Amino acid sequence: MLASCANAQTGESAPAAAGEAFKTTDVAGFEEPWAMAFAPGTATLFVTEKAGTVKLLDTKTGETATVTGAPKVDYGGQGGLGDIAFLPAEAAGTLATRTIYLSWAEAGEEDTRGAVVGKGQLVCSAPTTCTIEGLSVIWRQTPKVTGRGHYSHRLLFSPDGKYLYVASGERQKMQPAQDTAATLGKIVRLNLDGTPAAGNPMADQGGVTAEIWSMGHRNILGMAWDAEGRLWEVEHGPAGGDELNLVKAGANYGWPVRSNGEHYNGNPIPDHEAGDGFAQPALSWNPVIAPGGMIIYTGDQFAGWKGHALMTGLATQALVDVAIDGEKAREVARHEFDSRLRAIAQGPDGAIWVAQDGKGARLLKLTAK
């Protein structure tokens, strides 16, 4: 129903399934892009590539460049370089020097791995000449485990810029999502230096438990704030049961005790139901949408999308439009592409930027018709 790569490459307008129509422009190419973010106050888009490279695109000139100083990552499976984030308060008119946060997979002892978050300084001597200096790890997923899946490691600052929220996947180990002595299967809330934030639900217990904001998550690949300052996340379910959740402090979202899907071997999992002691999803999908990323749209180019959650689909190869209604949500439209979609970002002018998944991926710009 919409935007094929053929349309993207020619720059022709593509019809939307419902709600919004847009033109798709093919802008640049990247190798296994995983996340992207605009430096606040600029038109420069930064893109992480899973094998361990940070790239930038000057969206005014179309020039791309490599950012030096990226960390060494444990690349393989779902692991590698992950998310990228900038402090909202540092919205200077030029790049110059500003704080940068990155997440990535780090190797441990005896074939174990875990997600980490690093903080450093992005220093740009020219619009497309940037390096990362003083990058140091401020947070580590606990514990490190075997395997190369479900890191999640999404980063999001609070609306007031005082706290950092980190999505920490359960690393395909399931049970740690219910263990408050581990940060696997959790969202953690940190100060900007990576220490546990005061006022967290279990702050008085100390240790990694003090970091936990919510629990019972599987593999979160999108987090965003709505206009009311509420936190939403979208996560992969097992065979079925992808979830969009309204995240509340101290809430338990059920994994692996509850899911609207089933195990890959066909073994059942009890469905979410009222009164089961767990937070219910605002929306779930079966078959899954396989989300790659999510924003909640705040721009003016697409009036029909304002306040909606927009999710990139991997297996579904679609941009999924979800309307939020109170504490519930409903899918409005599914705009189909002919490629897996990994990352999504909103530009300063309200355009939507979407990155395909995998090697030889294209970066697409969606603008109003």
What would your notes on this structure say?
With 369 residues, the protein is mostly beta strands. The protein has a domain at 31-217: 6 Propeller (Neuraminidase). Helices cover 2% and strands 46% of the residues. It has one helix at residues 5-10; strands at 13-14, 22-30, 33-38, 44-49, 53-58, 63-67, 81-86, 97-107, 113-126, 129-140, 152-157, 163-168, 186-191, 212-215, 219-225, 231-236, 242-247, 283-285, 291-296, 309-313, 318-325, 328-336, 341-346, 352-356, 361-368.
Element layout with pairings:
Elements: H1 5-10, E1 13-14, E2 22-30, E3 33-38, E4 44-49, E5 53-58, E6 63-67, E7 81-86, E8 97-107, E9 113-126, E10 129-140, E11 152-157, E12 163-168, E13 186-191, E14 212-215, E15 219-225, E16 231-236, E17 242-247, E18 283-285, E19 291-296, E20 309-313, E21 318-325, E22 328-336, E23 341-346, E24 352-356, E25 361-368
Antiparallel strand pairs: 1-2, 2-25, 3-4, 4-5, 5-6, 7-8, 8-9, 9-10, 11-12, 12-13, 13-14, 15-16, 16-17, 17-18, 19-20, 20-21, 21-22, 23-24, 24-25
CATH hierarchy class name of the domain at 31-217: Mainly Beta
User: CATH topology of the domain at 31-217, what is it called?
Assistant: Neuraminidase
Q: If helices are DSSP runs of H or I spanning 4 or more residues, what is the number of helices?
A: 1
- CATH architecture call of the domain at 31-217: 6 Propeller
The ordered string of helix (H) and strand (E) elements is HEEEEEEEEEEEEEEEEEEEEEEEEE
Our estimate of the beta-strand percent is over 45%
Helix/strand structural class = mainly beta
**The CATH homologous superfamily of the domain at 31-217:** TolB, C-terminal domain
